[in-house]
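Service request form, structural biology core

Requester: graduate student, group of Dr. S.
Request type: structure prediction, single chain
Budget code: on file
Notes: please return the result as structure tokens.

Sequence provided:
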Amino acid sequence: MTNSPTNASHPVHEQELVFAHVRAVLDPGKTGRVLPRLSRRKTARALASAGFCNLTGEPVRAAALKHDGTQFFDRSETVLVETLNTGRRFYGLFVEPTSPSHEDWATVTDMFTELGRRVHGRLAPADQFRG
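Core staff response, request fulfilled:
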């Protein structure tokens, strides 16, 4: 991931990011065997504890991660995450930072690092997940 200047007055600008299983390959032609599932329960707990809410302000729940394209914002409303599903298989999150402060971005990346340890996932540029 790229980092912006260290001056805290400048917002963070990141490229397109995905949080998915370390072995995931985002190739639509090979979905079944290359998109390992992620735990909806553990992911929802991590997102909720980091202050992510749905568009109506309700905290993230595991059931909300069942539907492709469901969107959530962090507390500062500067980081958007969107669920990635095929059928009933939850396999990741598209992560779009929209100019968060360095402190807000550090909170989000720390949450994804800890969640990654629990579910064998990683936050990385989307290109790194393509086959």
